[in-house]
Amino acid sequence: IHFVVQYLELQNQITEPNTLAAIGALSGRGVIERERAAALQQGFEFLSSVEAAQRLLEETSANSFPKDPSECEVPARYIGFGSGNELVERYLEETGKIRIIFNSVFGID
């Protein structure tokens, strides 16, 4: 998300202090559609909460996400999901939306 947003900011001479503000500015100027802006904002907020939970619970910098639901039970409950499976499903849904936007921005099929 950061990479896409920063790339679009540079391409369109937009400077915002944080990612969410930048997404809003890009949408406001018509650089990205509102639906895509909403998907980026939602994905950013979700992934930030997952990362924060991993950092707090594992006391480490988290740069990866386990796809095995059994490894996600504690973070899932911490964030407010009923199970690790629900968290993994949401993770895959959000990252799938983000990947589509990324591929579109960079012309990847």
Give me the secondary-structure topology.
Elements lengths: L1 H10 L7 H10 L5 H25 L14 H7 L4 H22 L4
Helix pairs in contact: 1-2, 2-3, 3-4, 3-5, 4-5
Mean pLDDT: 94
Query: Could you give a short account of the major beta sheet?
Result: none
Question: Could you tell me the radius of gyration in angstroms?
Answer: 15 Å
Number of helices: 5
In whole angstroms, how far apart are the ends? Answer: 18 Å
Order of helices and strands: HHHHH
Shape: elongated
Estimate what percentage of residues fall within beta strands: under 5%
Number of beta strands = 0
DSSP helix fraction: 55-70%
Structural class: mainly alpha
Which regions have little confidence, pLDDT < 50, spanning 5+ residues? none
Annotation keywords:
68% helix; 109 residues; elongated
Q: Your description of this structure?
A:
It is a single chain. This protein has helices spanning 2-11, 19-28, 34-58, 73-79, 84-105. The protein has 109 residues and is mainly alpha-helical. The chain is elongated.
Short description:
The chain is mostly helical and 109 residues long.
